[in-house]
Amino acid sequence: MIRTAILISGGGSNMVRLAESMTGDHPARPVLVVSNRPDAGGLLKARDMGIDTAIVDHKDFADREAFETKLHETLLAANPDVICLAGFMRVLNGSFVQKWQGRMLNIHPSLLPKYKGLHTHQRAIEAGETEAGVTVHMVTPALDDGPILGQARVPVLASDTPDDLAARVLKAEHALYPAVFRRFVEQLN
Length: 189
Ligand code: GRF
Description:
The protein is α/β, with parallel strands linked by helices. The protein has a single domain (about 1-105, about 140-150, about 175-185), classed as Rossmann fold, CATH 3.40.50. About 40% of the residues lie in helices and about 25% in strands. The chain has a 7-stranded mixed sheet with strand order 3-2-1-4-5-6-7, with helices on both faces. α4 links the parallel β4 and β5 (about 105-110). α1 runs parallel beside α6 and α5 (about 120-125) crosses α6. The longest helix is centred in the last third of the chain and has 27 residues, at about 160-189. Belongs to the GART family.
């Protein structure tokens, strides 16, 4: 069984889709959901699914190193084989990433390498893109830069607001992440 930890910062809709997919003959199971925000709605959803949760609030630490040291300890205690970042909104230092490199995935709401960073939907609309999407990639020290494992594309409509586009992309995220994750863990097995 491939032990999987999921890191969130918000509502956790991607976390829920990942956890729901890990049933039956799926080689992985969720063993921990960690949030850097105590008020993340995803924590309640994880508890309702019977998944252990932990909070490592970045505001409780003097700097990123101290936060990441605690985050690393919290993860080690659950002994995960793989980590999925799912709406986790803290940029991780290279030193942290290197400890989990090759077994940490992230989902990013754009067609990387386009629109790394924040506000991806607004930037795609402002640039006049006719297509947008989502990417699942391996996490490397450079932000939103690791090897791409999968992408899904959606149209950008002339009437779209960033929220309209975000909702359309989120639907694509919910299908893409479980599929790419399963493919990834099956090749680990
Ligand atoms: C998603 O759009 C994800 O791509 C981005 O943050 C959003 C999180 O959504 N990084 P949720 O918390 O999984 O619902």
